[in-house]
User: Which sequence fits this backbone?
């Protein structure tokens, strides 16, 4: 009876195993890199908006403060979107292109809401409070990037859990003094950041002898 | 009851997902190896799919308001009123992005004092009901609104020359000053027209009794804050009596101060007031008049007579507490008993009852009103019938034959919230505006007026109110807002603008009228002939669906009824002895016959029910209106006598030999009663155990340590907390099939215990949310650390980590964890959901969070104000809803907080405390009556 396996069979099996393992590693590595890349989190992809609005013109060119339109950012969990009246307050006088502002006029006529598309939305089970973050000295750009340079607004960071935790583990690196939170040309001066007397950062929490920051507990961000 | 009972057929609001064929057991016995591998591959593929169904995070709508004045209105609150039996209780509606998401009580309103009931909580659900009527229809086909206007104009042209002869208006009970004014204007313009009212839950005997006693239709309103002894003859002041939220608060406030009323309840059908009674007497309806007469005779009321073994003792208690003693009479008692009670209260010189002008705009016996319109229809005198907001085709006694009569009228118009039994028989079918989206006004049980304002934009654009229909009939169409404004401009004159704004802000439009002190008439005592012996039918509002108008609220259908724990239907309730005498066991189907009409119903013995009578809860067996309510339980209106009586002798009952569908949670989540509820004698204390030794180190709590204390002596089992929790936390409704499998999702359940003899037990209620144990048994058994402790002592549930082993639930001694057997997110993701609480996917465990989103919100708000959290900043949804303030929540690190003080109370104990779990939710023991101490 003839041999079933040729003398080279062993070598071919080994080669196949090595190649298989290499492909597996490559696949895993690619997948790992992909989920950590911005592409998976749609960084840099603008969303379709009802009006071709440019932050580059308004915030960058004209130098409007973020709070001019997002008025709730220091008071409420949601930063707030500008009302249709806020937009038209200026645009009745300047750049009054009727066709472009039709969605706003329709909203005022119907008393309904203007439906902008959210660019930086967190999942349902995450809680985020703009007022808490601005009060703790976190600037808008930390999460939203250089919005004032974006003609079409897009996500600047992944906003995944790792991104949040990087900062919550070492908040001091991103915190600014109280007066500089909304400054666009801020350069670190070594001044102490705005620590709130009753914020979560002010508590020490130790269990089994290990200090854990309340900022990294699940319930701080998850609901 | 044991085992799963086959559920009722019919589409469920949240049907159980069909079992994937691949996961069903193989038809021929044991799995072969290949089959097992194939299944494993299939389930892996399924789990991979499940991992991909994350909600898209890009391009979600971000709502920007149209006007700057709306800018702050991301969260807004509106003070308004909701009606029950035509009488209002004040509520505050919270809206998010313009959508009403939660109803809470208005602390300024005398009928609420900040509390709600299950019906007010469910208003948000009905507002967003996909089954509600949205289009104006003619014989079922949608037509433009102009056609309705033309039809009303044509009716006006036809009616005006003959002075309105043939025009009849049928409404529910009306307390609204505006609606009464407009109806008055219609009657003035059409002198031959008639206005009728219909309310299946009306207590006509109370009105008749007051008329006999005082010669006028007065409302006897108890003041339980001043009562020391209350005799309830079928009255349910904590449950179904108008003003129940106020009465419950008054009762518990006085009780907590040690001057509480002794509740003596004599009733046939167990009520929640009976469950909280200090002394309860099961009273057969045939003996009611004799008992009342005997008590009255013992009190020295002239002309009263009767004999009953318990009467002398009861009378002695009432005399002892004079003038704080009061006799209250409820549904099911004759007019002579009501008159007798007025005489007894006069004799006792009671200070605990006020006689007020009736809050309804035109109090009248509703059954007589309906009977007279039936007579007119039979005589062919009715050509135009407007039915505004009532549903007589369902909830009028079937013996009246309303459905057949309706077909004989040429012009019929029904204004209804959904396409119900009456809508289908009417030519013009007009959708009715929801109370949360329309203007109006109303009076509370004590006559306090209040304005109703819309909390949202109308969700059904063609919907109209009663006022719009009636003003169109007058030829001067007016919006509800204009009509309400006109009413109050006339009342307030010059100061209108300021008072209007204040009334909308505060939720009150004036004061309650002053009490009257009419003299008792000479001829008040007109004894009724004795009721024949034999089996008696006792009709009663269902605690979940009332008279059927709440039958389409899925939250209420699925909420276990306080005493029977029945969900998704009703049953014929009777004493265990009566069931045994008829050879019936729970769930047996019986055929009930009364006056030649028959109905099939499940039999359900209830401890404490009076023997030889059967309670038939109204509100089941809806025939139209949507899949939630249709066909749930049996229709007791089919048996109700034509005069709308609350009790009827001559009932016969026989077993059909079949089993019926009863879905009950009575056997679910059982905890040993002797370990769960404790009682103490008045003034008594419980031994306070020392701290258990533990090998585990204590958790540190540097800031707050949240805790909850629930006073079982205050709990009346009304379920308001459980429905409030469901509304606040987006808790899904699972449907009768899943409930019968023990898969209900309520984060907070209210357990009911009976102690003592079956014929007349003592009952107690125990709300059970998550205990947030210090040494939580659920935490160490989780293989993926999905449930863990945080720095505030909250036992957290991390949904994205959970892999659904359900080990935590098995290890929880309190059985408070709920597992998502199905994906309910699609059904829950409506504008009615609370956006602060995430929706849970299939296959994860969930449970009470202590409303952690409210804690986070309060912390943010306090931090923004630059201050630490104060006691009272965080109110959980259940705590906010509770009429008796039984639930206290706060920071255990603060020795001055309400919850810390509750824990110092001698009645404080931990449920299953011997297990060493050291729960954060603890209880204060029920105070038992002296008899048991």
Assistant:
């Amino acid at each position: 009876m003839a041999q079933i396996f040729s003398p080279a069979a062993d070598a071919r099996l080994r080669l196949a195993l090595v190649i298989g393992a290499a492909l597996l590693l490559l696949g895993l590595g690619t997948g790992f890199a992909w989920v950590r890349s911005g592409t998976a989190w749609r960084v840099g992809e603008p969303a379709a908006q009802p009006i071709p609005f440019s932050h580059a013109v308004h915030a960058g060119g004209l130098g409007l403060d973020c709070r001019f339109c997002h008025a709730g950012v220091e008071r409420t969990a949601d930063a707030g979107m500008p009302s249709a009246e806020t937009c038209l307050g200026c645009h009745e006088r300047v750049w009054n292109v009727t066709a472009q502002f039709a969605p706003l006029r329709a909203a005022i006529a119907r008393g309904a809401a203007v439906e902008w598309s959210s660019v930086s939305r967190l999942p349902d089970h995450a809680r985020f409070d703009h007022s808490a973050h601005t009060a703790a000295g976190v600037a808008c750009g930390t999460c939203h990037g250089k919005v004032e340079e974006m003609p079409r607004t897009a996500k600047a960071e992944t906003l995944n859990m790792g991104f949040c935790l990087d900062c919550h583990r070492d908040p001091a690196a991103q915190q600014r003094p109280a007066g500089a939170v909304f400054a666009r040309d801020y350069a670190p001066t070594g001044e102490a950041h705005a620590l709130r007397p009753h914020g979560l950062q002010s508590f020490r929490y130790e269990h089994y002898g290990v200090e854990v920051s309340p900022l990294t507990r699940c319930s701080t961000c998850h609901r | 009851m044991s085992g799963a009972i086959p559920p009722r057929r019919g589409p469920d609001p949240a049907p159980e997902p069909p079992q994937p064929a691949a996961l069903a057991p193989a038809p021929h016995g044991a799995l072969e190896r290949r089959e097992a591998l194939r299944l494993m591959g299939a389930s892996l593929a399924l789990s991979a799919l499940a991992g991909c169904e994350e909600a898209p995070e890009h391009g979600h709508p971000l709502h920007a308001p149209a006007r700057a004045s709306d800018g702050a209105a991301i969260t807004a609150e509106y003070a308004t009123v909701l009606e029950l039996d035509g009488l209002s209780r004040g509520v505050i509606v919270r809206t998010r992005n313009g959508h009403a998401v939660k109803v809470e009580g208005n602390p300024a309103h005398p009928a609420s004092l900040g509390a709600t009931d299950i019906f007010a909580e469910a208003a948000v659900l009905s507002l967003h009901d996909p089954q509600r009527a949205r289009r104006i229809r003619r014989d079922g086909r949608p037509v433009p609104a102009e056609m309705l206007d033309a039809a009303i104009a044509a009716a006006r042209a036809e009616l005006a020359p003959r002075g309105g002869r043939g025009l009849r208006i049928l409404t529910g009970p009306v307390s609204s000053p505006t609606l009464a004014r407009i109806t008055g204007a219609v009657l003035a313009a059409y002198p031959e027209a008639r206005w009728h009212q219909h309310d299946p839950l009306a207590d006509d005997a109370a009105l008749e009794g007051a008329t006999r006693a005082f010669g006028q239709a007065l409302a006897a309103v108890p003041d339980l804050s001043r009562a020391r002894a209350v005799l309830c003859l079928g009255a349910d002041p904590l449950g179904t009596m108008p003003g129940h939220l106020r009465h419950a608060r008054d009762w518990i406030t006085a009780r907590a101060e040690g001057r509480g009323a002794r509740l003596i309840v004599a009733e046939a059908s167990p009520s929640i007031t009976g469950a909280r009674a200090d002394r309860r007497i099961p009273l057969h309806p045939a003996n009611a008049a004799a008992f009342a007469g005997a008590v009255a005779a013992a009190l020295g009321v002239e002309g009263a007579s009767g004999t009953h073994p318990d009467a002398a003792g009861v009378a002695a208690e009432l005399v002892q507490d004079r003038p704080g003693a009061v006799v209250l009479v409820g549904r099911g008692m004759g007019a002579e008993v009501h008159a007798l009670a007025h005489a007894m209260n006069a004799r006792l010189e009671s200070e605990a009852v006020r006689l007020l002008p009736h809050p309804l705009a035109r109090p009248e016996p509703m059954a007589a009103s309906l009977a007279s319109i039936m007579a007119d229809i039979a005589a062919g005198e009715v050509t135009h019938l407007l039915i505004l907001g009532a549903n007589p085709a369902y909830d009028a006694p079937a013996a009246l034959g309303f459905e057949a009569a309706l077909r004989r009228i040429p012009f019929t118009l029904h204004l209804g919230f959904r396409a119900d039994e009456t809508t289908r028989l009417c030519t013009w079918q007009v959708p009715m505006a929801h109370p949360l989206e329309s203007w109006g006004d109303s009076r509370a049980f004590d006559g306090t007026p209040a304005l109703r304002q819309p909390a949202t934009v109308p969700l059904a654009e063609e919907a109209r109110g009663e006022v719009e229909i009636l003003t169109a009939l007058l030829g001067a169409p007016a919006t509800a807002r204009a009509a309400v404004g006109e009413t109050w401009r006339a009342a307030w004159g010059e100061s209108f603008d300021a008072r209007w704004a204040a009334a909308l802000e505060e939720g009150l439009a004036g004061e309650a009228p002053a009490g009257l002190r009419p003299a008792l008439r000479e001829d008040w005592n007109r004894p009724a002939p004795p009721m024949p012996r034999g089996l008696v039918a006792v009709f009663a509002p269902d605690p979940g669906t009332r008279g059927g108008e709440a039958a389409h609220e899925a939250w209420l259908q699925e909420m276990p009824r306080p005493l029977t724990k029945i969900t998704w239907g009703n049953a014929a309730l009777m004493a265990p002895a009566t069931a045994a005498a008829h050879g019936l066991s729970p769930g047996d189907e019986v055929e009930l016959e009364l006056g030649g009409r028959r109905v099939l119903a499940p039999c359900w013995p209830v401890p404490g029910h009076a023997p030889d009578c059967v309670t038939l809860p109204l509100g089941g067996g809806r025939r139209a209106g949507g899949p939630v309510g249709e066909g749930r339980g049996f229709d007791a209106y089919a048996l109700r006598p034509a005069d709308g009586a609350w009790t009827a002798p001559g009932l016969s009952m026989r077993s059909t030999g079949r089993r019926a569908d009863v879905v009950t949670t009575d056997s679910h989540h059982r905890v040993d009663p002797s370990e769960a509820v404790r009682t103490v004698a008045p003034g008594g204390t419980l031994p306070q155990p020392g701290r258990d030794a533990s090998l585990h180190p204590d958790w540190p709590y540097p800031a707050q340590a949240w805790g909850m204390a629930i006073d079982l002596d205050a709990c009346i089992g009304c379920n308001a907390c459980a429905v409030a929790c469901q509304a606040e936390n987006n808790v899904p409704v699972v449907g009768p099939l899943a409930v019968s499998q023990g898969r209900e999702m309520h984060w907070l359940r209210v357990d009911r215990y009976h102690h003592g003899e079956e014929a007349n037990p003592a009952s107690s209620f125990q709300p059970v949310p998550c205990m947030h144990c210090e040494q939580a048994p659920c935490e160490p058994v989780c293989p993926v650390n999905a449930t863990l402790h945080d720095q505030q002592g909250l036992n957290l549930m991390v949904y994205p980590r959970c892999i659904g082993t359900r080990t935590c639930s098995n290890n929880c001694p309190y059985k408070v964890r709920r597992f998502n057997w199905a994906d309910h997110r699609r059904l829950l993701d409506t504008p009615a959901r609370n956006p602060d609480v995430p929706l849970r996917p299939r296959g994860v465990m969930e449970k009470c969070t202590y409303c952690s989103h409210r804690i986070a919100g309060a912390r943010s708000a306090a931090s923004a104000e630059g201050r630490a959290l104060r006691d009272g900043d965080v109110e959980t949804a259940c705590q906010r809803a509770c009429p008796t303030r039984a639930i206290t929540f706060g920071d255990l690190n603060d020795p001055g907080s309400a919850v810390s003080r509750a824990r110092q109370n001698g009645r404080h104990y931990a449920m299953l405390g011997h297990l060493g779990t050291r729960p954060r939710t603890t209880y204060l023991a029920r105070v038992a009556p002296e008899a048991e101490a």
